[in-house]
Amino acid sequence: MATxxxxxxxxxxxxxxxxxxxxxxxxxxxxxxxxxxxxxxPVDVCIADSSSWNDDVQQELSGVARIPTLYLSRASNPExxxxxxxxIRADALVQWLLDTAxxxxxxxKAEKTxxxxxxxxxxxxxxxxxxxSHAEAYLDHDSRYLLRRWPPAQIIGNDPKxxxxxxxxxxxxxxxxxxxxxxxxxxxxxxxxxSTLLHSELLDTRVGSKVAVISTEMQSxxxxxxxxxxxxxxxxxxxxxxxxxxxxxxRRLGI
Length: 255
Prior knowledge:
This protein is an alpha/beta fold. Helix content is 46%, strand content 12%. It has 2 domains: 5-112, Rossmann fold (3-Layer(aba) Sandwich); 125-220, Winged helix-like DNA-binding domain superfamily/Winged helix DNA-binding domain (Arc Repressor Mutant, subunit A, Orthogonal Bundle). The protein is built from 10 helices and 7 strands. Helix 6 packs across helix 7 (176-183).
């Protein structure tokens, strides 16, 4: 059975609050009984105006955990990873909620596994795995990296900076320099840890210019590429599923 999830609406005009609740009601066959919209109290996921993004980032840098948030905006903002352009499209909103629920479920299972292992090895200092030197050559500052699964304890160790970097990568795809800015770790520390995660096949990569050139050169020479070994996700790739969902929602909304 899916874990119940709550959605909060923050800083939105009343007409958008009514619209989102209407979309929820009309999309109940996909969202219920897992999802519910609440007016106050703690929530698992949030929809907010894009004007609050900077404040959310600053709070996260100060140590406040940030929940998955979809930001509504009338203008594109490349800095915000999860943004939905106004006017609100019902199909895009529902698709984001379904994808977010799946990601949260995966993260909770990984966290539960990690906690079980940590309990078994309580009070044990775990040395962090040293980064393989040959992995660094394939690190690309133009690429964005997204965590596929939480690293085992023997890899991440007890390093607070690595824990923070990994947590950021589990929420959104980031470049190395963005990681350094958000995590407070130095650029060298971020490069080292991202390279280690790449080598351990724990990251998905949205290809930047450097990796694309390396891949092309290796393919033309007949040499199979070993790194980055994580799967490559083209930036901006639309979800493959959900076409039937979109049509059904539009029919029920009369659009």
